[in-house]
Every structure is written in structure tokens, then in C-alpha cells.
Design a protein that fits this description.
Number of domains of chain B: 2
CATH topology of the largest domain in chain A: Rna Polymerase Sigma Factor, Chain: A
CATH architecture of the largest domain in chain A: Orthogonal Bundle
Largest sheet of chain A: none
Distance between the termini of chain A: 20 Å
Helix content of chain A: 55-70%
Helix content of chain B: 25-40%
Number of domains of chain A: 2
CATH superfamily of the largest domain in chain A: RNA polymerase sigma factor, region 2, helix turn helix motif
Radius of gyration of chain B: 25 Å
CATH class of the largest domain in chain A: Mainly Alpha
Order of helices and strands of chain B: HHHHHHEEEEEEEE
Number of helices of chain A: 7
Strand content of chain B: 15-25%
Distance between the termini of chain B: 63 Å
Structural class of chain A: mainly alpha
Number of strands of chain B: 8
Shape of chain A: globular
Number of helices of chain B: 6
Oligomer: heterodimer
Order of helices and strands of chain A: HHHHHHH
Number of strands of chain A: 0
């Protein structure tokens, strides 16, 4: 992979393609432009410095990058350093797309529309549970406290939400996201 | 409820990163040895990683692209052989001479610096490409130093990236307080004898950050310092003791 070879052109291409999504995710988590910039910068730097360990057979570079942005943003939110992160990173599992740029744009647009529709179709309490976890960085126990429901209920909501999303996306041939 | 049932109930929370560290480690160990939980984790994780796609894209500030490139260049430099050791003749703090005896260095307007910075970044990319294709590429000469804030600038930091081959230096500032109206920050290079030379002026962004280009080699200087001076061109000599400074060694 050219990125692993230290090719700054590849870094620029990656940045130009995903900076908007990366920044949006960081802003969604942090709500602060300055810290969002820091989180995105550190995520790109992480990809840059660890590119040699990336295995395209295991998954998409986009997923790796956006997961790094999300995790770093949550670290900022919780005031902890990346070295303190012990939870599992969301490892990429899916195949990298090699479609041409116009098709990639179309494909991404379709994927995003489908994900919005899928998330929007979830019952409010299920949607809230996964969003508090993913974008808020809350643990399941914290979410149970916040929403004043038993922990088992939160677990069930998360499970149901992800199962529905999985089925929805798979049904539209979009699990390759 | 069996251990398996308890673990299975938390697989979704695990792939969402919603378990505490200890719980996550227990889950990781369980999933490694449990085929059904492993399959569930793969299936649910694919849904979890799709969640960020619901977010509407936001164009980041243009400066972020520069920051990422500078950080990448700095990271690359940290893996290179160390720069030659510099002669250490530095005092702990800058010694300022009377204004009348100071030789004034060149000033670089912020706009010009930004233009040259872009050219430099293009050069970094081109240099990386050329370097890989050369039979015997010359090892890049890059050194990094740190500026530390004190007093009213105690929250400020600066990372100096000395690109020796290019004869220029990038300084990545963070945490600078907002300036009073009409003021600018001025970068000074200080000789081992304590004589400051003006190197650049700049105004940080609303987050107190700025990447500044210093278009002069650092050789012959022992320290870099920053003061707040009258804008837009800064002062010919520092009018106050610096509260952000660091050694170039």
C-alpha cells in the first residue's frame, strides 16, 4: 500500500476523500471545532504511522480511519490519553472498495442514505442507546443510569438495534460498508 | 444465567465500545473461544461501523489539511537518523540586549509565509516521491525542538520542525491566547550571545493555533522565543521578556 510506504500523496488523497466525514464524526462526538480538528489530525497521524500494519484483506481503510477518529474523539471527551484506551478497537472487517471515483461517490451516497434510513427506522429508545454508546462514548451501565432503565434493557436495545441495522443493510446489499 | 448467556447479552455493547475496560477484556477472551459469540460480534460490528455514515459531512477548516501534512512530515522525521548535534551555548532564558544594539533580522508577513508554506508542503510531497525513486537518496535532515510557555502563555506550546535541506523551519503553535486588537505574535531567533533576530509575525486562529513558516536556517541560533508586539509588522526588537521559548538543541 502506497500509504505504508510513506507516500504523502496517498495521505493527501485519503485526507481529501474522508476529511469531511472525519471532521463531521469528530464534531458529532465533541461539538467543539478546535478539539475536533485535534482528533482528526491525530487519527490521520495514527493511520500514517501505522499504515504498514493495515491489511486490506481485513477491511476498509475508511472504516479504520473513521473508527480512529471516533475513538480519539471519545478519548478527548473523557479526558484520557489514547494510551489509556483498553477497550477493543472497532476492527475493520470489510473489503476495501476499488471502484473508480465517480462510482465510489455514488456508492458512498447510497450507503449513507441507506444508513440514515435504517437508523431513522429504529425505535427511538434503540436509536438512542446505540448513539449514546457510539457518539457519546457512554458505557452500557452509564446509559442505563441516564435513561433510568435496567441494564438488561439497555443490552437488549443495543442488540436489537444492531441486528436490525445489519439486516436492513444486508437486505440492500450494503453490508460492504 | 450462564456465563455464556451473560457474555452473549453484551456483545452489542462490546462492538459499540460500551463496556468498561475490564468487561471488554473478559469479552475479548470469551469471544476468542466462543464460535456463536464470535459470529455475532462480526455481524453486529459491521452494523456498528456503519453508524458514522449517518452523519452529514462538514468541511473542515483549510488549515487542518496543513496541520495533518506537517504532523505527518514531523512523524516521518522522527523515524530518521538524528540530526547532527548542535553546539550547546544556550542560557536557560533569553538574554535581551538594549534595543539600540540589536541588529534587526528580516520580517516575513503572514500572507507571504502562508504562500511559501503551501509551496513547501508541495515540495515535501514532491521530495518524498523523488526520494523514493532515487538510487541513492540523500537522508533528509530534519530536527525537532519544543517551545514551552510560561506565565501568561503557560498553556501555549510550539513544535519546531527544522527542515535543514530546505533551509526553512515550520513551527506548529497551539494554545496561544487571543491577542489584543492590533497586536501580533512575533517569533525571535536568538544567538548564543543573546541577540534576537525577528523571524516571523503571525496571528493565531480562534483556537490559538497556527503553523508558521520561518524562512531562515536555524544554524547560528541557540533559542527561539515568542513575544506579543504591535502589528501588523511587529517590532524591530522585543519589547518584553518572552514567555514562550525553547532551546534549538
Amino acid at each position: 500500500m502506497v500509504l505504508a510506504a510513506g507516500n504523502q500523496d496517498a495521505l493527501l488523497e485519503l485526507y481529501d476523500r474522508y476529511a469531511g466525514l472525519s471532521y463531521a464524526v469528530a464534531m458529532r462526538v465533541l461539538g467543539d471545532p478546535g478539539r475536533a480538528e485535534d482528533a482528526v489530525q491525530e487519527a490521520f497521524l495514527k493511520i500514517w504511522t501505522n499504515a504498514a500494519s493495515f491489511d486490506s484483506k481485513k477491511g476498509s481503510l475508511r472504516t479504520w480511519l473513521i473508527t480512529a477518529v471516533r475513538n480519539r474523539s471519545i478519548d478527548f471527551l473523557r479526558g484520557r490519553g489514547a494510551h489509556e484506551r483498553e477497550e477493543l478497537e472497532l476492527q475493520p472487517d470489510l473489503a476495501e472498495s476499488h471502484r473508480s471515483d465517480p462510482w465510489r461517490e455514488v456508492s458512498l451516497s447510497l450507503e449513507r442514505a441507506a444508513v440514515r434510513e435504517a437508523v431513522g427506522s429504529l425505535p427511538a429508545e434503540q436509536r438512542q442507546a446505540v448513539q449514546l454508546a457510539y457518539f457519546g462514548g457512554y458505557s452500557q451501565a452509564e446509559i442505563a443510569d441516564m435513561t433510568k432503565v435496567p441494564l438488561s434493557t439497555v443490552k437488549g436495545r443495543m442488540r436489537l438495534a444492531l441486528e436490525k441495522l445489519s439486516s436492513y443493510l444486508q437486505g440492500r446489499g450494503l453490508m460492504d460498508v | 444465567m450462564s456465563d455464556h448467556e451473560a457474555m452473549e447479552g453484551s456483545v452489542a455493547a462490546w462492538v459499540l465500545g460500551a463496556l468498561d475496560a475490564g468487561e471488554a477484556e473478559d469479552m475479548r477472551v470469551h469471544v476468542e473461544g466462543c464460535a456463536s459469540c464470535s459470529q455475532a460480534a462480526v455481524r453486529l460490528r459491521r452494523a456498528a461501523v456503519a453508524l458514522p455514515l449517518e452523519v452529514e459531512e462538514i468541511s473542515p477548516p483549510a488549515r487542518l489539511r496543513e496541520r495533518v501534512l506537517v504532523a505527518a512530515a514531523a512523524a516521518r522525521s522522527s523515524t530518521l537518523p538524528s540530526a547532527p548535534a548542535r553546539k550547546k551555548t544556550v542560557a536557560a532564558t533569553p538574554r535581551w540586549k538594549p534595543v539600540a544594539t540589536i541588529e534587526v533580522g528580516r520580517f516575513y508577513a503572514a500572507a507571504a509565509a502562508a504562500t511559501v508554506l503551501l509551496a513547501l508542503l508541495v515540495g515535501l510531497v514532491a521530495g518524498a516521491l523523488v526520494g523514493r525513486n532515487s538510487v541513492t537518496p540523500a537522508p533528509p535532515q530534519v530536527a525537532r525542538f519544543t517551545l514551552v510557555g510560561h506565565g501568561s502563555l503557560s498553556g501555549a506550546r510550539g513544535t519546531i520542525i527544522d527542515l535543514k535541506n530546505d533551509g526553512v523551519t515550520l513551527v506548529d503553535f497551539k494554545g496561544l491566547p487571543a491577542l489584543a486588537k492590533g497586536k501580533v505574535y512575533e517569533v525571535w531567533l536568538i544567538t548564543p550571545g543573546g541577540r534576537p533576530e525577528a523571524a516571523a509575525v503571525f496571528v493565531p486562529d480562534s483556537n490559538g493555533a497556527k503553523v508558521v513558516l520561518v524562512s531562515m536556517p536555524l544554524s547560528g541560533f541557540a533559542q527561539m522565543a515568542v513575544t506579543a508586539e504591535d502589528g501588523p509588522d511587529g517590532a524591530t526588537a522585543p519589547t518584553q521578556p518572552p514567555q514562550l521559548y525553547g532551546a534549538l538543541a
